[in-house]
Amino acid sequence: MTVADPKPNTPSLEFECDTGNYHTFCPISCVAWLYQKIEDSFFLVIGTKTCGYFLQNAMGVMIFAEPRYAMAELEEGDISAQLNDYNELKRLCDQIKRDRNPSVIVWIGTCTTEIIKMDLEGLAPKLEAEIGIPIVVARANGLDYAFTQGEDTVLAAMANRCPTSAQVKTTEEKEERGGIQKLLSFGRKKDDAAESPETEYHDHPNLVLFGSVPDPIVTQMTLELKKQGIKVGGWLPAKRYTELPVIDEGDYVIGMNPFLSRTATTLIRRRKCNPIIAPFPIGPDGTRAWVEAICAKFNIEPQGLEEREAKIWESLEDYLALVRDKSVYFMGDNLLEISLARFLIRCGMTVPEIGIPYMDKRYQAAELALLEQTCHDMGTPLPKIIEKPDNYNQLQRIKATQPDLVITGMAHANPLEARGINTKWSVEFTFAQIHGFANARDILELVTRPLRRNNSLKDLGWDKLVKEEVTV
Amino acid sequence: MKLAYWMYAGPAHIGTLRIASSFKNVHAIMHAPLGDDYFNVMRSMLERERDFTPVTASIVDRNVLARGSQERVVDNIVRKDREENPDLIVLTPTCTSSILQEDLQNFVQRASLDAQCDVLLADVNHYRVNELQAADRTLQQIVQFYLSRAQKKGELLTEKTAKPSVNIIGFTTLGFHNNHDATELRKLMADLGIEVNALIPDKASVHDLKTLPRAWFNLVPYREVGPLTAQYLRDEFAMPMVDITPMGIVETARCIRAIQAVLNAQGAGVDYEPFIDEQTRFVSNAAWFSRSIDCQNLTGKKAVVFGDSTHAAAMTKILAREMGIRVVLAGTYCKYDAEWFQQQVGEYCDEILISEDNGAIADKIATLEPAAIFGTQMERHVGKRLDIPCGVIAAPIHIQNFPVGYKPFVGYEGANQIVDLVYNSFTLGMEDHLLEIFGGHDTKDVITKTMSADSDLSWSKDGLTELNRIPGFVRGKVKRNTEKFARDRGFTEINAEVLYAAKEAVGA
Questions:
Q1: Predicted confidence (pLDDT) per residue in A418-459, tens digit
Q2: Quick count: other Cβ atoms within 10 Å of Cβ A166?
Q3: DSSP code for B266
Q4: Interface check A83 vs B, CB under 8 A
Q5: CB distance A48–B126 less than 8 Å?
Q6: Which chain B residues have a beta carbon less than 8 Å from that of A75?
Q7: How confident is the model at residue B469 (pLDDT cuts 50, 70, 90)?
Q8: What is this model's ipTM?
Q9: How big is the A-B interface in CB pairs under 8 Å?
C-alpha cells in the first residue's frame, strides 16, 4: 500500500461510541437502487406495513414506475403461524414469476422475520428448486444494520452465487460474465476486429471490483484502471444477475464503498479471495490512492496519476475557495462519512466530528490512515469519530460550536436551517455519482450548494426563523 | 401474506405519532428498531416544519431481542422528560413491539414514578388498525386520560361558556390541507358568533383539555379522526356533536343548520338562514359558478373519485349535486368504514368501489375512461399514464399538497378552491384534447440547439452509449461541451474516454 503509515509520536484518531439513538434510513432502502442496478432481479421485502410505508415514502416517485420490488406483507396469521410460511411464499413467488419472470428473486428479511424466526435461508433452497428461479436471501433489517449496510448484506449473499471458472464452460457464457469488457468493446469488435484488447493490459491476477455504482461510474473506473494496464475481471454486482462475475480462489478483490465489510469478509473467507485494502475512490485524493493501491499489489508502476490528481484539484479551485477554512460536521447515517471527511479536509475544511453508524476499522484501515495523513498534511486537528451517535447530544454540540455546514438526514435539516445552520442532506451523497476523478466536482457541487444558496440570500436578514431559542 | 406494491393508509404508529406531534409539548417515544423514525423525515419535509419533530425512538436491537428492553425504555422516557420537559410522553408501540409482547404498560408505570411528565402507552395494535383508526383512538385516549383525571381531582370545568362555543376536533399534523381548513373553520365560527373553545389536537396544550366540557357542542369535520373523541364527550358529558363535513356549498349549509339546531336546543335562539343565503348567493362564488356557462360545459362529463371517506364522499356530492358531473365511480380505501361511505354516496354515483388495492382502482379507471379523476397522489400517477387529468383531493399526498398559500377545502372559501380544482382539471383535459385534434403545438420551426448537425466529429458507439446515460436535461450541454473539447484537442472521434476526459477538463 502506498498510503503512508501514520507517523509515530503524533496524536492518532479518537474513537467514541454513543447510545445509538440516531436517525438513519432502514437498510431495506437498498432495494431502491439495487433493483435498478440489477436489471433482471425482483426484490421481495418480507415485512410489515411499516416497512412498506417507509419504502413508498422514501423512494418518492420511483414507486410509480412499476418497480421490480414489492412487499410480502405479513398479516396476523403469519405472525401467529396459523399460515404456513412456505406455502405463502410459494404463492407469492409463483405470482412474481408469472407476472415478471425475473432471473433472481431477492428476499429481504426484516425485523419481523427475525423476531418470529422465519427460516428464510432454509426455505429459499427448497422453493428455488421448486419454482426454478434462484432465490437469494439478505437479512437487511433495522435490528442489525443501518441504511447502506443493506446493500452490504445483499452483495454478501450474492458473492456466494458468483460462479467459479470451472462452472463457466462455454465461451459465450464467459463473455457474458465479463460484462464490462463486452460493454467497452461494444461496437469496436465489428469495426476493427484485428485489434486485440488483451495486449493493452499487464499480466496480473484476476481482479473483481465490488460495490453497486451507477453504470457511468463502472465505465469510468474501468477506464481508469485500463490506463494503468489493469483489467477489471468483473463487478459484483453486474448489470444482470446472469452476468455475476467469475470468482476463483486467489482472485483479487477491492471495494468501491466504505460500507461493504460483510461482502469483503465473505469474499475473503468463503471465496478465498485476496483483499486489496485501500482508501475509497471518493475525491481525487481517494481515487488516486485507490488506483495506487491496486497498482502496488500487482507491482505496476502507476502512470501519470500525480499530474492527473493535480489537474483535477486545479479545476476545482472555484469551489475550493468557497469551502476553505469552513467547518463541516457529520451527524452520521450512511457510512460514507470517513471518506467524505477525508476529502473535505484535503479541500481545506475542518471537521470537528464525524458521526458514523458503524466503524469497521479493518475494512476501512487504509481510509482511516489516509484521513490521519491528510490531517497532518493540512495541519488540521484530527476529528473525533463517534460511532452509533446520539442525535440529541450531537444537536447540543452543534448548537455550541455553530459549524459552517452540517451534513445530516432530512429529519434534522429543516429545523437546523430554521436556526441559521447550513445543512446538506446526507442521503444525496448515496444517490449522486461521487466516485472517481471526474466526479470530485459533483461532491463539491453538493457540499457548496447550501453555501452558495446562502451567499445569494445573505443580506436579507432572515437567517434565523424560529422565535425563541428552543432547546433542541 | 399479501403481495403489496403500495398502500393508502400507513401503519398504526403513524396515526399515534400524528396525534402526539400535533399537541404542543407532547413527546412520543417509539419502541422500534433503527430506521423506523421515518415519521420525522415526513413531517420535516412535507410540512416544512421548522422545529424538531418531538419523536424519538427507543431502539430495539439484538440486545433487546435477547434480553428484553429492560431498563432501556424507562431510561429513555426519563431522559426525554429531563431534556425537554414535555407535559406528556406517549410511548408508541410499532409492529416490532406488537410481536415482542413486552409489558410496555409496566414500563410506563415505572417511568411515571421518576418522570415529572405524564406518561401514556398508546393503545393501538399494529395488526388490527391502520394509521387513521389509530389516530382516532389515540386522540380519544389522551382526551379521556386528562378529563378523567381532572374529574377525579375535581378540576374539571363543566360550566358552559356564556356565549355559544365549540370544540373543533380532528386537526392533525400531516393531515390533508388541515392547517388551512382550521383557519377557515375558525373564521366560519366567528362569522356565526360562536367562540372556539378549543381546537384539538393541533397546537393545543394537554392542560387545556380539562376545559373541553365548557363548549356547547363539538364539531368533527373529518370522518377519520375525531369521532371517537366526540362520542366519548357525548356519552360522558352529554355534549352534542355535529359530524357533517362542511365541504361544498350544500354540505356547508347542512352543517351550519345542524349547528343552529344544536345551539337552539340549548336556548341560543340563533337564525343562520340569512347568513347561509348571503354566503351562498353572493359571497362565495361556487354557487354562481354552477349556474355559469363554464359549468354548463361540464354537464354529464365523467369523473372518478377516490380517497379517504371524508374527501371522497364530499367530492362525489359536490361533483354530482353541485356541478352536474357524472360520477361513474366513487371509492374509498377506508374499508373499515365502508357502510358509512356507501350510505353517503349511494345516490350520487353509478358504482362504488371499496378497496385498498391501488391496482384495482387503476384498472377501473382504465376501463371507465373518465374525463377527469379526483383522487390521491396514486390516482394522479395513474392519470399521467393514461393521459387523464387528476385533481388531488386526499392523502396519501406529496410535498406539493402542502401549499404555502391559503387553500382550504372546507367552508365557503373551500368551495371556491374546489371549483378551481375541478374546473382546472377539466379544462386542462380539454386543451390536451384540442391539441391532439389539431396536431399538437406548431412544430415547424423547432430550434435544434442541442443538435450539432453539420459536425465534423463522429461519436463512437460506446461514446454514444455513455452520452445517452447522461440525464436528458443536461445531455445537450454535455454533448456541446464534449465536442468543443474534442475539436480543441483535435480528436476526430468521440468515445467514452474522450467524453469523460472532457467532463474532467471543462466540467462538461
A1: 999 999 999 999 989 999 999 999 999 999 999 998 887 877
A2: 8
A3: T
A4: yes
A5: yes
A6: 1-2, 127
A7: confident
A8: 0.89
A9: 198
